[in-house]
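User: I'm putting together a teaching handout on how sequence relates to shape, and I'd like one worked example. Could you take IS630 family transposase from Phocaeicola barnesiae, show the sequence you're using, and then write out its predicted structure as tokens right after it?

Assistant: Happy to. First the sequence, then the structure tokens directly below it.
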Amino acid sequence: MEMQLSTSEIEILRKLQRNLAGSSDYARVTCILMLGMGNSPSFVASCLGIDVSTVYRYRSAYLHGGADELLENRHKGYWGLFDSRQLSALRKELREHIYTDAKSVAEWIKSTFGVEYTPQGVVDLLNRIGFTYKKTSEVPCEVDASKQAAFVGELSEILSGMPEDAVVYYADGVHPTHNSRSTYAWIEKGEKLEQPTVSGRDRVNINGLLNAHDVTDVIAHDCESVNAESTKEVYQAALDRHPEAPFIYIISDNARYYHNKKLKEWVDGTKIRQIFLPPYSPNFNLIERLWKFLRKKVINTGFYRTKEKFRQAVKDFFDNIGNYKEELESLLTLKFRLSNSQTISF
């Protein structure tokens, strides 16, 4: 008797399993998980100490109405004031509309079903049914999912067909501002951790390249402006660093300076091959993660009285990039999330 469970179903059932540990409903949820792992009904029954007919009954209930029906006979004890129909309606409401606080959810529940929950009661309920409070993901409204998918296919062909000793860089500019920013940290309860700030808005302009297969191969050019001229300089630095490479592929967004006529004419006479990301696709640019790491390590956690000290701190970060190799190898993997939340790897 084969039973397939999706990844999201498994996550929800695992969460239910943890919450129901020690209760009589634990066996119901565990039964479905074990069947989903390919175990036979007789094996599941033997492990859980229940009849084979009970295994079939749990399976039938889950296939018919999901976790709601599987636990329906117990919902007064587990789901509190809700029945399975109301729970389904609540899930649908939360999937289709954004609620930023538990009080608003409690108000919707009261107006829809006439059932009163405290905000904390709502939090407990939502945690039990598989919801968690976290940040939404920002996606540009102009993003074209079909273009992103097409790009994935094209890039896969390019990467698989390139010579083994070719080099791949991701390119981008970043403009760290000389000012401390508040960040999250472990702070003693009841205490404040104050960070000094400066009033200036001076910034450092960095035109950079990140090797897709070597996290310590970073070219960071401190320049007056991130433009076609400074881009040519970092491209030349890449050529100088890899004289034996047959080709150097550089993946970037569609900033105007990457399409500069003079730059393109110069590139055509080199072994550099430019690859442009689809519009509004920073999620595909690996170097964006390096910039975020820079902010975490240097900008958000340090105070620099003068612009010169700030600039030196940024320079020291890149000069000593090898010190962060272990962290960067974990962060800068070639895994990317599409606008539809699908994850792809190269």
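A couple of points you could highlight for students: The chain has three domains: 1-75, 79-134, 145-183+195-345. The mean pLDDT is 85.
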